[in-house]
Structure formats: structure tokens, C-alpha cells
Amino acid sequence: MKKTILVTATTIAMLHAGGNIHPKEVHPAASEVETLAKKHEAMTDKPLFYLSDFYAGVGIGRFELSDKQTDEAFQSNYVMLKAGIDFNSVLGLEGRYTYGYEDIHYDRGSNQSQQSQDLDAKYSNIALYLKARYAIKDFEPYILVGYGESKTTNIRGFDRYEDGLQYGGGIGYHINSHWEVSVDYVRAYDKKGFDGIGQLDDLKVDLLTFGVTYHF
Question: What is the CATH number of domain 53-215?
Fold first, then answer.
């Protein structure tokens, strides 16, 4: 009888104690919590537009104003200065100033009535571009679309100006976190006339640039 009472009392005590036992809470490791917090911050706290990078650079290149019909061309080499800022990882704004450091050379093409010659003339261009890019490891293809003005001095007796849409594209290679080298092409003009150089001719201005950029 005593044994029965003892077993019963023990069972009741165990059941009573078990009612107050809560399952053990499982907490993630501290490193896992930190990783999750960083991912959440990256997804929620970063705005769509933020100033992530300011950069400046210099380049050298080749200018050509050519007639699509007669193959006549005005050509010279130039130096280019640029500065820009990135809004986010894919979009930025870039300004460029291009100046021909040598006289423009005239190539007569198929126009036999003219003589090829070096002219006492210079080319310059100033433009502001919206720059869209996409990084693939250390390479960064990009496109440029913007507005600018091209100028030639003393061609056929006059200084000539044309402004409007300019567009192009290129690719950069990041040597490290600061230095980048690039090559790109810009169509700076593609209409008739170029302020009187050839009113009935279909003219275009091409700029091919090799550059070096420093990211601050």
C-alpha cells in the first residue's frame, strides 16, 4: 500500500513539474545575426539614388568631321578632360571637355577639286552625359547619352558651332579600387550642314578616346 502511494505521489509531482517546463529557445549564432542584419540594412536602408563615387580623368583621342557622300574629312588629335559622379551602381553624370592640340588636317576624299592640306584651325567639344554602366568583374561596359556643343575654328574662313544630342559607348577596366583605363566612341554630330561647312551634305563628327580615370 505504501509503495502504491509513493509511486502515485511521484507521478503527480513529475506531471506538475512538467507543466511548468518550457521548450528551450534556439538562438542563431552571433555571426549569423550580424550577417542577417547587414543584408536587411542593404535591402532597406540604401536609397535608390545615392552619391557613391566621384571621379576625374584625362584622355587622348582622334576627331573626325566627315562627309558621308564625298568621303571628305577634317581630322585632328585631341586631349580630353572629364569629371563625373555616380548616383548608384549603374547610373551617373559625366562632363567632358575636348580640345584639339594640333591643327585640323583636311583630307579631300573623292572631291578632286580640293587639295588635302593642314589648316590653321582647331576643334573643341563640351558636353554633359548621362552614363549607364554595368560591372562584369573588373570590366565595366557603359553607354553615354547627353547634350553638347562642337566647335571648329577658321574652317573656310569662319568659326562654326553645332549643338545637340551626343551619344556613344565604351568599356572600362578597373586596375584597382582607384584607377581605371577605358576606351570609348562618341557620335558628337550627325546631321546636314554643320553650321555652313556643307549645307547639302550629310555630315558626322566622331570622337574616339583612350582615357585614364581616378576614382576618389
Answer: 2.40.160.20
